[in-house]
Amino acid sequence: MTTGVSYDEGPPLRARTAAAVADTTLRANLQATAASWTAGREKMRDEFGFEQMRERAREIRLGNIRQLPELLDRLEERVRANGGIVVRAADRDAAAKYVVDLARARGAKLVAKSKSMATEEIKLNEALEEAGVRVVETDLGEWILQLLGQRPSHIIAPAVHLNRTEIAELFRAESGEDIPDEREALVAYARRRLRQDFAAAEIGVSGVNLGVADTGTLCIMENEGNARLVTALPRIHVAVMGAERVVADWDEAAHILQVLPMAAIGDDASTYVNLITGPRREGETDGPEELHLVILDGGRTALRGTEFEEALSCIRCGACLYSCPMWRTVCGQAYGSPYSGPIGAVITPLLEGTSSPRGSELPFLSSLCGACHDACPVGIPLHDLLVKIRGAVSTPAHRRARLGARVWAAAWRRPWAYRIGVAMTRGGLRVLGRSGWIRRLPGPARRWTSQRDLPARWPHR
Amino acid sequence: MIDAFIAALARRRATGREVDGDACATACVAQMTVWGASRALVPDDPWLAMLRVPDAIGDAGIEVVMWPSDRGWRELLGLDDAPPTCAVTVPLGAVAERGTLLVGSSPTHGRSLDAIGWWHLAVLRADVISATLAIALRTAYPPGSTPPSAISLVSGPSRTSDIEKITTYGAHGALEEHVVVVRSSQSG
């Protein structure tokens, strides 16, 4: 059995982050993106009282997580009563297998998808393609990445690391048409091209932002309109929902539906919120004939009652990514997990375990500055969770590092040991810095001097 | 409330105007003419018929396709050189604070209606406008009742920020949105 998020194969984290830091185009793209988010966020704070809304959002989500089993049962019962089919998937393999088996059973050749992190997590595209089913991502950013064979760099803005010149080159290669480097022309091309797939797909796959337990309604938020077409035109709609994404009633839903776009894009509403309460009814000529809700656990419910429970409050707005100096430097793809940034560094190890290479590395990809906590619309103390998860990482390298830190701490608590340590260090640096500069240090300090020289005396003479 | 709603529409890069019932059809045709629409996809709604909206559109030389329609998705989506369509909706509610429409599904009103058109023209009863989203949703989902199979909250034209985080309009849904608000005394 596999639980938790999927991992990309590839070079180790240090190599990925080093490559990202060296990419000046990427840095410029990220700076522009983060500046745009910051401006939007300030507007929400000044015009809409975002800080007060944040408090209420936190209360709602903590309450939802406390009542999660009851809310999920109620949601399941209501969705079934509305004519939908509900499947509880314990892990990502079970979730992907259900959708693949369904596609096979219905003879589907084409699946149109709207943006969904849960389907990234279960590697649904790969599973469907292995089964011979063509998958088309219809969110513009996701489609761009699919054409490039890349993974998303942000939860809600997946292609934010690319600029329009790079995208225009891609579209020209894909279409053979002379498409100018203008955003309007690029969007118009994608609109025209993807309408072919909306018309032909037998199955539409979406994620779920919120499930409303009281009425069994699935809320799917978007700005482009592709999620509406994906959920309304194909004969079958499969919605894949993380098990924690449930609220009790419409008052709670109304609040979260407003807070989420404020945090995510600095706007008080997303263009479309699709509220789906079952498949098409008698006499209706659009909407799916079959609605399948796949509720993915993948290690989520095991977090309830632990010190990490608050991570389940996340509403996947991506605000913590934009606020994070690490994410703004290396971008999402360097994390090697579908979930990047502070929330990715928290939930990847929580869902996957801390023994895998990336599960043990990601909690350390943070300066613990706390900007993510300030940005989070539901007030998750991400920096505290990161510290706690670091304590749970127990690879041989981390055990060695912790032992070293304990020795260091013990020495500095004793004046005689401290004085001996300082004298030895001073003597060693004098030898190494005969030329006036220390260019290379031994042991763990080697990495520090690989890119810096240290003056042997300070102030430098 | 109507003024607040129309002001909020402007923030969403949509437009709106308030009219009496007898001026509704003219206002609809005028907006379609501004957009240059040659085809309209219109729900088979008795209130719209009473306001003579489908008749006026047809009289203006714009082809009227009634929903439900047996035209295939390719044609309705504007593929194969089909003319781009102006979709007409009759929202079941609206939110003054946010400029949001609540567009519900029914046999005569498809859940995809406003998103498959090039342009979205909503004909809104003034008395269904609520102050806040919470009130509008409470009204749309009263306890013990069966809500529509789908309700779409629509806040302006389709947009994307996936290229350089700069908003660009007309992604997959309507490129433009206009709301004709019909005063309550004429709401039928």
Account of the protein in words:
The complex is a heterodimer of chains A (461) and B (188). With 461 residues, chain A is α/β, with parallel strands linked by helices. Helix content of chain A is 51%, strand content 11%. Chain A has 21 helices and 12 strands. In chain A, helix 2 crosses helix 12, helix 3 crosses helix 12 and helix 15 runs parallel beside helix 18. The longest helix of chain A has 25 residues. Chain A is globular. The termini of chain A are far apart. In chain A, 52% of the residues are buried. Chain B is of the alpha/beta class and 188 residues long. Chain B is built from 7 helices and 12 strands. In chain B, the strands form 3 sheets. In chain B, strands 1-12-7-4-2-3 form a 6-stranded parallel β-sheet, sandwiched between helices. Chain B has a 4-stranded mixed β-sheet with strand order 8-5-6-9. In chain B, strands 10-11 form a two-stranded antiparallel ribbon. In chain B, strand 5 and strand 6 form a beta hairpin. In chain B, helix 2 packs across helix 4. At the A-B interface, helix 2, helix 8, helix 10, helix 11 and helix 12 of A face helix 7, strand 9 and strand 10 of B. Strand 9 of chain A pairs antiparallel with strand 9 of chain B, so a sheet runs across the interface.
